[in-house]
Amino acid sequence: MLITVRDDEVSSFEAAEKLLVYDVEEGRPVKSLGRPVTPDLLEDVVEEYDAWVLFTRGITRENREPVEEAGIKIVETRAGSVVDVVKEFFTW
User: What are 9's strand-pairing partners?
Assistant: First the structure.
């Protein structure tokens, strides 16, 4: 999964300092991508890491389209930290 991050908290896509690639099965981040995030980069991430969902606090319509075209589902969340996202969506 992908998470937009700023100051170690989940942020909006536009305010993010980095895009974190988090492996749910391993329970840890596996890659951190700096800005800017381009559609080509997103497609590469989807292929390499099977990252098909993006957790973010928000995303503009103009950025939403290329993300979704890369095959990524967008989930808007109010979770504060990466750990909160994992607990909220992947604890069963």
Answer: 6
